[in-house]
Design goal:
The chain is 26% helix and 33% strand. By secondary structure, the chain is an alpha+beta fold. The protein has a domain of 123 residues. A hairpin with a 2-residue loop joins strand 2 and strand 3. Helix 1 packs antiparallel against helix 2 and helix 7 crosses helix 8. The chain is globular, with a radius of gyration of 20 Å. The mean pLDDT is 90.
């Protein structure tokens, strides 16, 4: 991939969450959600630290890029004690994050460039994750293109001084007085959507595990394998690396390929 623009990597794992009622106060019931399998906060952070250490990097994080640097051992203990990693960490032009989404039975590890080219080769980041329990999918995207393909709030366009007058809009579907007009991103080739146990998204490169084909259907893999304008490499065990022959998806010039890839993988445009 070209490193002329900022890029980011998202890695998705399937998780299983067990809910337990821990307290009842009047009419309010308080529940605790415990993740019983899949990659958790601590394991994700440990893996990132191992990759940084292997690159001989001086590992000291800053939460949200603010405050005093914190050592990895100290932050790992903090995450273990709190039971969650809920604030992004920054180091050497990179931002790391973790999100658990029990509603969709997935968790997401994200690595985003703050400086162009700071991630280097994305292969070194993904290799330590694709063989972990519950791996579903991963993809690299252009930071700016991905953002504007998925923004729905007109206020974000206004804040950035961008015109949205020619973009399709729709109601957010809420009753008055909560109803608002929002940008209709459903027509965008670079949109991503949460699905049960996976995310409907495209990028280049992508890494697709066996669990991915269980979700979308093995027939989609057969269609993919018969496409002659995609680069496919079978990795062990059972992970397919996919990339397009153009460098990346960063503007409308690759829209036909984006829509083709979305149709192959998900049967949608």
């Amino acid at each position: 991939m070209s490193q002329k623009r900022l890029e980011k990597l998202k890695i998705v794992f399937e998780i299983e969450v067990q809910s337990e009622k821990v307290e009842r106060s009047g009419k309010l019931e308080i529940w605790r959600n415990d993740q019983s399998n899949g990659v958790n906060d601590v394991e994700a952070l440990e893996t990132i630290i191992e990759i940084l250490n292997a690159a001989n990097a001086k590992v000291e994080f800053k939460e949200n890029g603010e405050g005093e640097p914190i050592s990895p051992d100290l932050y790992l203990r903090k995450v273990a004690q709190q039971g969650c990693w809920n604030r992004p960490l920054e180091i050497d032009g990179l931002r790391f994050g973790f999100a658990s989404l029990p509603k969709f039975s997935i968790c997401i590890v994200s690595i985003e460039e703050l400086d162009k080219g700071s991630a280097g080769d994305w292969t070194k980041w993904i290799e330590s994750f694709i063989h972990k329990e519950g791996f579903i999918q991963a993809w690299v995207s252009d930071v700016e293109y991905d953002y504007w393909q998925n923004v729905r709030d007109p206020l974000q366009y206004e804040a950035a001084g961008r015109d949205y007058g020619n973009l399709p809009t729709k109601s957010n579907g809420l009753p008055p007085p909560l109803e608002q007009v929002e940008i209709d991103t459903s027509v965008n080739p670079g949109k991503w959507l949460f699905r049960e146990n996976y995310i409907e998204a495209i990028g280049s490169p992508m890494w697709l595990g066996e669990a991915f084909w269980v979700k979308v259907g093995h027939d989609r893999k057969q269609i993919l394998e018969h496409s002659n304008d995609l680069n496919l490499v079978e990795l062990s065990p059972g992970v397919l690396r996919l990339s397009v022959k153009s460098e990346s998806f960063c503007d409308s010039s690759t829209e036909p390929m984006q829509r083709k890839l979305r149709w192959i993988l998900y049967g949608t445009e």
